[in-house]
Amino acid sequence: MTTAVSSLPLATIDLPDFNQLGVDELKQNVHSALQQAQQQIEQFPEQLHDAQQALELIFELDHVENQLQQRWGVLSHLNAVKNSAEIRQVYQDILPVLSDYYTQLGQHKGLYQAYQMVQASPAFTGLNPAQQAAINLAIRDFKLTGVALEGEAKARYGKISARLSELSSTFSNHVLDATQAWSMPLDDAQLQGLPESSIGLLKQLAEQHKQTGALATLDFPAYLAIMTYADDRNLRETFYRAYVTRASELGDPQFDNSELMQEILQLRQEMAELLGFKDYAEYSLASKMAPSVDEVKQFLLDLADKARVPAQKELAQLQQEASAHGIEQVAPWDTAYLAEKIKLREYKLSQEELKPYFPAPVVISGLFKIVERLYGIQIEEKQAPIWNSNVHYYEVSEYGEVIAGFYFDLFARSGKRGGAWMSGFRSRMKIRNAIQLPIAFMVGNFTPPVGNRPALLTHDELVTLFHEFGHGMHHLLTEADVIHVAGTHGVAWDAVELPSQFMEFWTWDEEALSLISRHFEREETLPSELLNALLAARYFQTGLQTLRQVEFALFDLNIHSTVPAPDTLQIQQILNEVRQQVAILPTVAYNRFQHSFSHIFAGGYAAGYYSYKWAEVLASDAFDRFEQEGLFNAETGKAFRDAVLAVGGSVDALTAFKNFRGREPQLDALLRHNGWSNGPDGSPASDSVSTAG
After folding, report:
1. What pLDDT is stored for residue 424 in this prediction?
2. pLDDT (tens digit, 9 = 90+) per residue, 326-385?
3. Do the Cβ atoms of 622 and 657 come closer than 8 Å?
4. Given Cys at both, which of 294, 463, 478, 639 links 487, Cβ 3.0 to 4.6 Å?
5. H helices within 275-423, ranges in order?
């Protein structure tokens, strides 16, 4: 287990045959891996001779875990991007079995003692940093999964874990089904204000649904087109209401997430108490970078204070624009529409004028050129089995040798979960006498190609692509050789957004924009007037956007630190209180945002949504070094790769940051990157908000 990584050859990449994978095979593959994993822990010896034997057994378990992660990863991925009744049923059937296995694993005293034996032995100092970190993190996680529980408490923990897995999956299914169940045909009058490309998208949606004319759905590209461009205010309100009441008691009752939210929070609280924590928020932060729930709340409130003055100015600007359009009071369904009008008037910036300069193939090619210059790698598209005709597969090479691979599945379609994400389907790890290479899925829901045109991206979509690719680089460029700390594994959740938010900065750089822009019909990059308009609008509504993120993060923390766990009505009351505390944009009584808040009810962000703002401090401060030394400085890029991307979870997040930056993180760069360089009230920026802890 102590073989030096540099002496091992890289394994060849073998990929799933998505063309041939049927539902029965998916099911059998996961069950087979689960059976092997369960046999492994059942056969784990009661008595261990020494630390070397313990190391060998841990190594064998890592191999079993590797197989299980990959096979479950394929099924989980297809359930998200190619959802069908058959795949969903298999996924739902396996979830409780998988949960039971991981509960057994996390509470296995013999295995826990094996890790402790290794940690306490002289052999521990001979392990490489990744192996040592994996041992230390495993011991922490045993404690957080109830290894010390006995009898009824132990059994109850297992039941809670299984039920939470089921509830989270059902929550996600309800959001997907509610989104896809709603659509509305539009006549020519309702299309007034929409640009040609948006009308083309809506007509294409009608064709796909075997209808004539134009059809709008709640899939985000169509929804955003209506909210941004439709002159018909009543139409915008209709779509807004449909969107914010998805999966709630105000929508289709079969998709209502009300009782699910309540039960999820109750079970999380019970789990936290079983493990000796005051509440679930405290339990969640036990494995994160932030020092305490109170300090995170204060960090968020301080950030809200800094954002409030610019946000109030932005709201006044919206209200002024509303008056010019005969709107007495700005409503939530007006904000995107009015914002587009302001950008067009104040900055001469039109998203519709920008989009032809951001065809997806050009953007992707430019993105690859940027990371190639930063990290000294090469990226090339390769032929591989895929699950949809719009999916592409690429391989990453260095010094002529393949080191990783990834898939892009970037466009919205029916049967695909909303949002954007990166999932590490296969991790880098030592396997026998070689190094297994990492593979990632990177998924988006961008506006798809319309007709014979390539997909034309908005700048917001471009930012999202760079964000997810930052996650991808974190997974793919790891040099840690142990599955539990390779890539994003083992990284504190409130630091995992550092590489993703860091990559977003290149979407605002003139040189980078020249690499990712070229008119889809004419061989010209972004003209100077559009470039200047885009850069001038960089800080547009950053105050309002910050308050919105703080609202989500505080709501998340508050519902997870309320004891006893809140019921459905109390969840709404907590959200209302948070809005009164930090929000300045008006809302409406029927808004049920929480019912589709999948990040915290069906994702990994429970009592952790604050991570986006926490990591933004790190990302801004890290990028500040590039601003000083050059955005394409290869030495600085190598330093970031070595200190942050390569180490994965083998070095704790704060140490990794300090290894790159040479000091503790500071807030100043974040304020400047939001356009508040001297503080929102003109006073010098303060670094009183710190992520050190």
Report:
1. 94
2. 999 999 999 999 999 999 999 999 889 999 999 999 999 999 999 999 999 999 999 999
3. yes
4. 478
5. 280-285, 293-324, 335-346, 351-354, 360-375
Task: Write out pLDDT tens, residues 374-422.
Answer: 999 999 999 999 999 999 999 999 999 999 999 999 999 999 999 999 9
Residue 393: half-sphere exposure toward Cβ, Cα within 13 Å: 17
Predicted local confidence at residue 691, as pLDDT: 41
User: What's the fold here for domain 5-175?
Assistant: Neurolysin; domain 3 (1.10.1370)
Label each residue of 69-129 as H, E or C.
HHHHHHHHHHHHHCCCHHHHHHHHHHHHHHHHHHHHHHCCHHHHHHHHHHHHCHHHHHCCH
Task: Please tell me the predicted confidence (pLDDT) of residue 515.
Answer: 97
Any idea where the domains of the chain sit in the sequence? 5-175, 182-246
Average pLDDT over residues 627-646: 98
**Tokens 């807030």 sit on residue:** 667
Please give the share of the chain, as a percent, with pLDDT higher than 70: 97
290: closest CA among 7, 671, 691? 691
Which positions are catalytic? 468
Dihedral Cα 323, 325, 327, 333, nearest 10 deg: -120
The strand order across the sheet containing 421-426 reads 378-382, 392-398, 401-411, 439-446, 421-426
Total number of residues shown for the chain: 693
Helix 51-81 with 109-120: angle, nearest 10 deg:
120
* 246 and 595 Cβ atoms separated by less than 8 Å: yes
What percentage of the chain's residues is helix, strand, coil (to nearest 5)? 60, 10, 35
How far the first Cα of the chain sits from its last, in Å, is 33
The mean of the pLDDT values for the chain is: 94
Strand spans (E) along 374-413: 378-382, 392-398, 401-411
